[in-house]
Write a structure and sequence with these properties.
Blueprint: H1 13-19, E1 39-41, E2 44-46, E3 51-52, H2 60-68, E4 73-74
Parallel strand pairs: 3-4
Antiparallel strand pairs: 1-2
Length: 100
């Protein structure tokens, strides 16, 4: 169960963009990786091959929050040739699955 999402699905995309991130990603705690970087990704050594996809990383504040929490592979927004607004609701929606 998601208790403190960093992207709040009850808010609009624009409210998340302006006011987020939320929850544990906004608590100011910075995760420090220990030890050697054990994995390689496109020629770069990283601690973990685990990241966050572009969808919930709306801007630089979200990317920095992901990096501060120890995610080595935050993926930022797709580059497009034209400008168009995002859907107001829902943009990112959590799912809660019971079982395997």
């Amino acid at each position: 169960m998601i208790r403190e999402p960093f992207y709040d699905p009850t808010k609009s995309y624009y409210d998340n963009y302006t006011d987020g991130p939320f929850g544990l990603f906004a608590d100011g705690t910075i995760f420090k990786d220990e030890g050697e970087k054990a994995y390689e990704f496109y020629g770069h050594k990283i601690h973990t091959p685990f990241g966050i996809p572009a969808g919930p990383l709306l801007n630089a504040k979200y990317v920095k929050a992901a990096l501060d929490k120890g995610f080595d592979l935050p993926i930022y927004k797709t580059v497009r040739s034209g400008n168009h607004g995002s859907h107001e609701y829902p943009n990112v929606v959590p799912i809660d699955i019971e079982g395997a």
